[in-house]
Amino acid sequence: MAPHFTTDAAEAVAGIADGSTVLIGGFGNAGQPMELVDALLQGGAEHLTVVNNNAGQADEGLALLIKERRVERIICSFPRQADSWHFDAAYRAGEIALEVVPQGNLAERLRAAGAGIGAFFTPTGYGTELAEGKETRTIDGRGYVLEYPIHGDVALIKAHRADAKGNLVYRKTARNFGPVMAAAATHTIAQVSELVAAGELDPENVVTPGIYVDTVLALAPAATPVSQQKDQA
Amino acid sequence: MNRTDTPLSKPELAALVAADIAPGSFVNLGIGQPTLVADHLTPEQDVTLHTENGMLGMGPAARGDEVDPELINAGKIPVTELAGAAYFHHADSFAMMRGGHLDVCVLGAFQVSAGGDLANWSTGAPGAIPAVGGAMDLAIGAKETWVMMSLFTKDGASKLVETLSYPATGLGCVKRVYTESGVFLIGPEGVRVRSAHGIDADELRRRVPVPLTIEA
Predict the structure, then answer these.
(1) What pLDDT digit, counting tens, does each position of B119-142 carry?
(2) What is the pTM of this model?
């Protein structure tokens, strides 16, 4: 089914229910779907589990969701930053649960979810406190830790361009978690800077095929009206 | 053994690491002191830099008009791309690392043990918020992991230790330790001192609490 296209961020995130697991793309500011996260903030969803590389920065987006105590649990690799004061306060108050995951394990657990993998053995983290309590195995003399996939109810990602089939291309290091999160979530919402007609993206260069994309938020005026895009699809 | 009478400055140490990187290598430079190594790589070395947020062929820090918020390094600093650069997603980036495709990873450290265990992600201080980032993946991923650090703490304690007292980042993963006072090679036979700078063999043996092989 072709994705739903909208230019209204509030409409794009309207279906996110209380208690959802929300995968949020981005590494630093690159690839952060700021408009979608702001819309989630304006909407009322709470009791969320959020998966992101970090735990919010400064007084924006995810940091404000945490400030409002709408995030019950966060799964990330690097929560502690100079400007992560809202997370720090929530954590020290015991009002947010934290699961710290090595960054590559985070990416691979998301990839595994999208790829239908039940679990995998990784050498990353073996022998460290982040592997405590986890199943381990020695394979060809090397120690590995069993890690499970991370499935999302919703993914919020940022891409550069989408076509009328929901195929996505990204820009530079803003790609980061977008492709694996798109595949790992039941419902993927991509905000894009540009919407083009089917056929205008070189199929050889598509990074995230539209099969993984359910809703596209077009932030810049589309080259052709959104309604026409839907007709073409 | 190579010796100098004074400790190496940070630029000298970075230059030494850079000179040891084989031509044509794929290299990841960790945040902090290892970043300085990039300044000393020569075009003739044709080294390709990897940044774990999804790029091979990373260029120097961006200046002025070059700054693009969608082109940053792992330290979230705006950088540039070199001709022949490639972008990829996070799972590919860490597969590249975990899969042993990178030749060298240079990291900072709190401690390294005689067996090559690395501690660089957490001081284990009570109440500290844990944050690991890519440290554990970087520690064990490349064909060789090298550490750049000061040999001694501010209190004068050796950071090259028999057993880690800080939480481990990875076990048995460090092959070389570059410090201002000496370069240490870690192998199956133990720790060999490749060079010493501003410190003699007796003082090294006295202050570094691990068996050292020091050739004349």
Answers:
(1) 999 999 988 899 999 999 999 999
(2) 0.95
Chain B: give the shortest CA distance to residue A105, in Å. 8
Among this protein's residues, is B52 annotated catalytic?
Answer: yes
Query: At CA A176, angle to CA A175 and CA A181, rounded to 5?
Result: 95
Would an 8 Å CB–CB cutoff place A117 in contact with chain B? no
Residue contact B55–A180, C-beta within 8 A: no
- Judge: domain B2-214, CATH 3.40.1080.10: yes
Cβ contact B71–A91 (<8 Å): no
Q: Where are the domains of chain A?
A: 4-113+150-232
Q: Residues B73, B81: contact at Cβ < 8 Å?
A: no
Q: Which residue of B has its CA nearest to A54?
A: B133
Confidence (pLDDT) at B93: 98
Fold classified for A4-113+150-232: Glutaconate Coenzyme A-transferase (3.40.1080)
